[in-house]
Amino acid sequence: MVSWHFVLSCDPYPRPDAPFAYEDPAKVMPLRYRSMEQRGGVQGGYLDTLLIPVLRGLPAEHMWVCEYDVDFAGSWGELFARFANNDADLLTTTVMYHHEQPQWHWWPRSETPPDIPQERWVRSLDPLMRVSRRLTDAYVAAMADDRWRGHYEFTIPTAAVAAGLRVEDFGGEGSFVPPGRERSVYIGKSPAGRPPDLTFGIRPIRRRYFHERPENYKRPGLLYHPVKPNVPAWTTETKNTLGQDRPD
Description:
- This protein has helices spanning 25-28, 30-38, 48-56, 76-82, 133-142, 152-162; strands at residues 62-66, 71-72, 90-97, 122-132, 167-169, 223-224.
- By secondary structure, the chain is α+β, with helices and mostly antiparallel strands.
- A 4-stranded mixed sheet has the order 1-4-3-5. A two-stranded antiparallel sheet has the order 2-6.
């Protein structure tokens, strides 16, 4: 169902090793790229400067991103089969409007053109996501406007909503979860807050993957994040430092 390609980023800048050609990130979104350079790299909200050019290098209508620290307590094939016929432009996790999570850490840095009111602002958590070709094209066009500012987990879902594209949550809680899919794919933050049985967020960190320690995954059939074997937890002090992980 999915043809996978291993993409490895070895430094803080968006020039990863990939087994296929992709556009020069500095030319795809020059304004975002310049902001990324000013902040010393992709960590802290500019991973889109890496992801979007790489995704545009693939000849597919829908493209998955799965970071190394995501795991599924079960058969990955079963998970992907659930979405094989889904035509959403953005499938991701923890998708909420501004009013559903007004205390999100990255809102103060967020800006949009004035025709996109704050009530249409959306946040997400994207270590696992699927995007459409339509979304990558619409996103590049939107980011040509320097009135867009902020974390890519704000700019990507908000630009998708602003473009009239279809955004869905895989299956957590909130306005973007289709009826019947609530808490069926992962347990994450919701408009009600942080649940005690959370499986997908920025903490707690797991040190072994499901196939290594299945007994550590108490809820089978769900996504888990983060899993960081022998990887230091990211902090604001180690941002964009070689050998450190990216922010969640």
